[in-house]
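G., the chain you wanted modeled:
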Amino acid sequence: VDRAFPRSPRGALKIARTLVALTALICFIASGAHEAYTALAGMETVITVLFLLLYLLRLDARMRCLFWPLADIFNSVVAALFLLVVALFAIIVKTNKGTLAGGVLGLILFVLCLIDAVLLWKKISLGRARGRSAPAK
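Predicted structure as tokens:
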């Protein structure tokens, strides 16, 4: 178990994304919102928890079949796009206060996804040497 990961900026961001997505999910369920809102918040919660566990248990170092930071960036960008659309629809439609609260939390989650993607991109692009000067493995 990587005890330093939850205290790192990326770890804190993953935990924040999980909590905000779970709160949005609860808001959408409690308000009886459209199933698409609930499904997106639920999928985001589950996927973020899985990535959190992947990094927390250091499974990314053991399972080298996939470049996990790039998969995480892809997840963050796709989730951000879906969250933007669904959160704006939830805010515009605002059938009740629960749907409105879920939409606002969806916009906060959208921002957190973008920040996560930027942090991961900086880690990938600035953390390693490229080109001919890169050491041979």
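Residues 9-96 form one domain.

Shout if anything looks off.
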